[in-house]
Prior knowledge:
Layout: H1 2-22, H2 28-31, H3 36-58, H4 60-64, H5 87-110, H6 119-133, H7 139-153
Helix pairs in contact: 3-5, 5-6, 6-7
Amino acid sequence: MDEKWEEKELEKREEKSPEEKDHGEKSYEEKYRRDPLGAIVWAAILIWCGLVFLANNLGFMDKIQPVFDFLPKAAESWEIDVPFITSGAIQIFLLGTAFIFSVEIAIRLTFPEYRRPVFGSVVLIGVLLSLAFDNWELFFPLLLIAFGISILFRRR
């Protein structure tokens, strides 16, 4: 009984397939094919987060903090009660994440096989930099610049 039902369902799917192709619909695999670069980027962000917080917990951040003294300091308005997270560690994490997204954008614009829209990543970089420096006056101008650049490079 189950075999007959499966055969009928298979026939129905085969009948629908040509109709779907006639209408220009893509299959599930074509719509949502895997994006290996996206997976690598998110894995790199998680690894970066772990490394920064581990370095902070082990006291390495205090030793390398003079290297980051040239950066504008984020306001200490981030009152964080978690013992192992400091505002300096969060700032370094946000800057590293913005760098990772910048590398992703460069790869997506350079290699055709990884090409995807990058405007969302550009906006995210603006948000990360604004959070890192606690300077929201940066966000709106960066958003305008990103929007203008996206208009210039938009394909028709």
